[in-house]
Design a protein that fits this description.
The complex is a heterodimer of chains A (346) and B (80). Chain A has 346 residues and is α/β, with parallel strands linked by helices. Chain A is 24% helix and 22% strand. The chains are: A alpha/beta (346), B mainly alpha (80). The interface between A and B is large, with 60 and 33 residues.
């Protein structure tokens, strides 16, 4: 047990070389001397005690449709109170939210919103769930967990939108309160994870499997980046892994890349590539494969795997048609995997 | 500093491995150890660990712009 640090805000800090700590939250396992913070930039060693710099300090607070996460098989059409703090334990060169994910906490202007206030706001705005999203909820682990615990007690559901770069122990603690997750599976190549994202592959695969085993509803997103992970063999590997390890009913979202952050020299993902990826995944046997960040003829439509009828049609994030009845196809009564407005997972 | 250390390690391992003709099991263990050292020392693929200006951080804590909340999931590294 470590003693409380001596906090003297206006004093001079004389750091000893002892008092090192190792953060075991994520697979980076950062060993930190006093005054150092981890690769996530939000966990700091203060005199031998690890401190979160972002607890109760979100930098993004929005109400989103659940479809934006994206979650297509989880309480469709519902509003989600969505929060994020600064920081991420990866450094993806294509990051769409890099202004906050790659920022240090002292470089952004946060809200003061303790967990109680998050839940109160979610209730006040009629949201059915709270999403920990935009950046990486793993790095604000304690905030996520405490919000989720209170939300669960208040009858609000919890959604994790994550890259999945977390160790099994903390994940197990967190998943107790998480109802649904969208996990980025960025590639099936460890080299890609190292070179483009600053992480490794295996922990992400473990997270997906552990979440599934914990009973969390899981959907997976794969961002297809031209020239980096758009090889048909690689797309095939992603879809095959999802099929083999999570089953045919796990929704897989192929997401369109737009030039961003450090990859502004690459073009957006061609629509043909996305359509091809969808066909590949469906040929492998996945029942629910979607195309995101792009307008395609049927990339956002949920069809019954039994009779082929349209179950949910979407325009952008809006639902224009919903033919799921009590978790079943409205046409042939086949059970449809998902969490449907209070219905149990099929 | 880390790079210098790494070069010294590289040269040391290289010298040992060249001193014997055959590749024994011990050699492959050495290589594995070296790879582990290199992985832990460099990790150029990951975001860096960085030192902070503690005076500034404490000022921000005072002003409520960053939190001072004890984290979970860490261990104290014992001194040798």
């Amino acid at each position: 047990m470590v003693s409380s640090p001596s906090i003297e805000p206006t004093g001079t800090w004389l750091w000893k070389m002892s008092n090192q700590v190792q953060c075991v939250l994520c697979p980076h396992l950062c060993v930190l001397a006093p005054g150092e913070r981890g690769r996530c930039s939000v966990r700091l060693n203060v005199d031998g005690e690890l401190i979160s710099l972002v607890y109760g300090r979100p930098v993004a607070v929005h109400i989103d449709p659940v479809e934006k996460k994206p979650l297509f098989h989880f309480i469709p059409g519902s509003d989600v109170f969505s929060i994020a703090t600064a920081g991420c334990n990866l450094k993806c060169e294509f990051c769409q939210n890099w202004e906050i994910s790659q920022a240090a906490p002292e470089d952004v202007s946060p809200y003061d919103m303790p967990p109680e206030a998050v839940v109160e706001n979610a209730v006040a705005y009629g949201c059915e769930a709270i999403a920990y999203t935009y950046t990486e909820p793993v790095v604000y682990f304690e905030y996520t967990r405490d919000c989720a615990r209170l939300a669960r007690a208040a009858g609000i559901r919890n959604i994790l939108v994550t890259a999945g770069y977390i160790n099994p122990g903390p994940l197990s603690e967190l998943s107790e309160y998480i109802d649904a997750a969208n996990v980025d599976l960025k590639s099936m190549s460890d080299t890609y994870y190292r070179n483009i994202c600053g992480g490794t592959l295996q922990p992400v695969l473990d997270t997906i499997i552990n979440l599934k085993e914990s009973g969390t509803w899981v959907e997976i997103t794969n961002l297809i980046v031209p020239t980096l992970n758009d090889d048909p063999a690689e797309i095939d590997a992603v879809a095959r892994w999802v099929f083999d390890n999570t089953g045919k009913d796990t929704p897989l979202h192929f997401s369109r890349f737009f030039p961003m952050y450090r990859l502004t020299d690459l073009p957006p993902t061609p629509l043909d590539t996305l359509q091809g990826a969808r066909e590949t995944a469906r040929d492998i046997g996945l029942n629910y494969v979607y195309v995101g960040n792009a307008v395609t003829p049927d990339g956002m439509i949920t069809k019954c795997p039994e009779c082929g009828e349209t179950l949910i049609a979407r325009h952008g994030y809006m639902i224009t048609e919903n033919n799921i009845m009590n978790g079943n196809c409205g046409n042939c009564s086949a059970p449809i995997a998902g969490v449907w407005d209070g219905m149990e997972e099929q | 500093m880390k790079i210098v250390l790494l070069i010294v390690l590289l040269l040391t391992v290289s010298a040992f491995s060249e001193s014997e003709e055959s590749l024994s099991e011990e050699d492959s263990t050495d290589t594995g150890l070296f790879e582990l050292i290199m992985e832990c020392t460099v990790r150029s693929w990951a975001r860096p660990i960085e030192s902070v200006n503690m005076d500034r951080i404490m000022e921000l804590i005072e002003n409520g712009l960053v939190s001072f909340h004890r984290a979970d999931w860490y261990v104290v590294v014992e001194d040798e």
